[in-house]
Specification:
Blueprint: E1 2-6, E2 10-12, E3 16-24, E4 31-40, E5 45-54, E6 59-67, E7 72-83, E8 89-101, H1 125-145
Parallel strand pairs: 2-8
Antiparallel strand pairs: 1-3, 3-6, 4-5, 4-7, 7-8
């Protein structure tokens, strides 16, 4: 029995990628009660599949997704357990390390805030008020002279 993890060695943070695990019976006899586990607790991977029988020279494939949420190096482990015709149990293991590259850091931009214009008062309001006061005063004085 042969176990292969077909995964990219590098992903970018935030990327979601479909990956495959292939189990191939490279022996001369059938493999019975085949159980395949692919795990990576840090990446949230827990893919399992069982087969009653994998005939000689045949393969089975398990597909799942890797969701690269965090940057760093992560280990993915694959284990296949199977039995031969004589009742012997076999275990094959494989490990792969995947690197998730962080997103590029964007430089802070210092955008200029728009300059707020000072509010303008109604032009001449003070002048109009002064003229009204002058006219009223003039009228009152003229009336008093009579």
């Amino acid at each position: 029995m042969s176990l292969a993890l077909i995964i990219p060695s590098t992903l970018k943070q935030g990327e979601v990628r479909n990956v495959k695990v292939t189990v191939e019976n490279i022996g001369n006899a059938d493999a019975k009660n085949v159980k395949v586990d692919v795990t990576s607790p840090s990446l949230g991977i827990n893919a399992q599949k069982s087969y009653d029988n994998v005939p000689s020279e045949e393969a089975r494939t398990i597909a799942f997704e890797i969701d690269a949420k965090e940057a760093g190096k992560f280990k993915i482990s694959g284990i296949v357990e199977y039995w031969d015709d004589e009742g012997n149990k076999y275990i094959e293991t494989v490990e792969k390390t995947i690197t998730i590259e962080p997103l590029p850091v964007l430089e802070e931009t210092h955008e200029k805030q728009p300059v707020k214009e000072p509010e303008k008062s109604v032009p001449g309001f003070e002048i109009i008020l002064a003229l009204l006061v002058f006219l009223l005063t003039s009228l009152v004085l003229k009336k008093n002279k009579r």
